[in-house]
Amino acid sequence: MSHSDLYVEVDRSAYTNALAENSPVTKTFFALSALILCVSALSARAFIVPIILFIICTTLTLGLAKVKPHLYLNMFIYPTFMIILSCIFIALFFGVGEPLTQITLPWTIWTIHKSGISMALNIFFSVMGSLSCLFFLVLTTSITDLSLLLRRVHVPTVLVELAILIYRYIFMFMEISHTMTTAQKLRLGGTGWMKKIREVSLLAGNLFIRTLEQGERTFVAMNARGYDGNIYALEEFPKPKKTMIAAIILFDILIVAVIFLTLNIGVI
Amino acid sequence: MLFRVENLTHQYSDGTLALNAISLTFDKGERIALLGTNGSGKTTLLNHFNGILKPTSGNIYFEDKPLKYDSKSLLNLRKRVGFVFQDPNDQLFAPTVKQDVAFGPLNLGYPIETVKKIVDDALKTVGMTEYANKPPHFLSGGQKKRVALAGVLAMQPEVIIMDEPTSSLDPIATSDILHLLLQLNKEKGISLVLATHDVDIVPLFANKLYILNKGKIVSEGTPQTSFSNTELIRNVNLRSPRIAHLFEVLKKEDGLPIPDDLPLTISEARKEILHLLQVTKDQTKTQNL
User: Fold this and answer.
1) Which residues of A touch B96 (CB under 8 A)?
2) Which of A83, A147, A186, B144 would bridge B88 by S-S if both were Cys, CB 3.0 to 4.6 A apart?
3) Quick check: A218 and B90 CB within 8 A?
């Protein structure tokens, strides 16, 4: 799946998943608290917790929200690749203290430390768990809901409005750049590395000008409907169920208990 | 007179005269078409009606009062004079259809409950109620145009200005939007000003036609009289509606007795053909005697 396709699919999922109509407060509270717990588990070296949270979030995303597994998998590909690479690196070259093995090289002694392996292990699971929490949020909550939420917690309006406008126009410009790239390809551009770089730069420059022009036209259109500097919200917010919030708090307390129970289990 | 324009001239910064001493008027309830090729000044002229552009010289009067350009007056003007842009992508900016249609009434300061009702009504009028919670990039071109129109209707204007309303619409969408506009004109008395270069739709809705060429008005009148001046139409790089062209050829090349005001629509053509058949029947009858 190309990068822009993924973006479009994630957005579509946010509107069409089974949990789309639920309160964004619930979803955000759950995902953020789980995220914080995942990261805390890292410093507590309790890597069982991120594994548990990973399983829970994935079940929620695929089972409850009924997101397509194909999409979920695609979202993991790049980050997982990167984290595995990083963790291998950490395991092999980082850490202090008790060594696992030592390999003699012509110029030095290469020590693989147990703490390095331990660090790599904890980081890997913690990151995978955090990703699953974040993906749950992103795949089930639309930007509209999120921006309403931000407004409620008094994030400065100008930032929220920027977010709303940028969101809308990212899609438009993805479409335009896709069209322009296709047009270039149809005129047999794109063979050879230097040519490709040149074409991308031409595209970027042209796109930049078009964004400026579009911004101008949108501003005129907004003025024609009475824009006075504030984007007022049509507040459409499903209220979170009190029972759900209580359940999430209980869940978080449980997870904290598990962290304490499995403290330092990730120390090899 | 609802709108009166006197000797309006608009000059671009590079010196070109986009509009050159234009004068026109229109009244409440009228349906005006501004016809002209690309670059004739249609959009520039339209942009003067709701204060987007200011004239370099000349005057514009709304209800016999000159336009004022401070923000309060502009807001009042734009409440009453709605503008639908040619490209709905310029107009639809909000994350969902409902929020976009609500933009206008919210800016006018209506309470939220009122706004919700207005938005529902506007979406119902254009037939887009099921799309209320969808983001604009999920919609097709014709649907986007309808949402853009709903956004303007939600401000409950007395005049609706549309720049090329039927460009990039398929035949059904074109017909739907025209029907909708005619309905709004008939039921709510909303005046319409449409700029277009689609000559075939002009006789279907307009009762007053202005033809622009290079920033000047070259013809003023009803579609019937304006389109009958076929030489003028060709000189400004336009063409007559197909039906009018057909009857022009029948008149000039085949010498059929067709009146000066050429038929412009299918129903007018039908009447004229049946009339001609009757005339030829009578002629052959008298010849046979």
Assistant:
1) 144
2) B144
3) yes
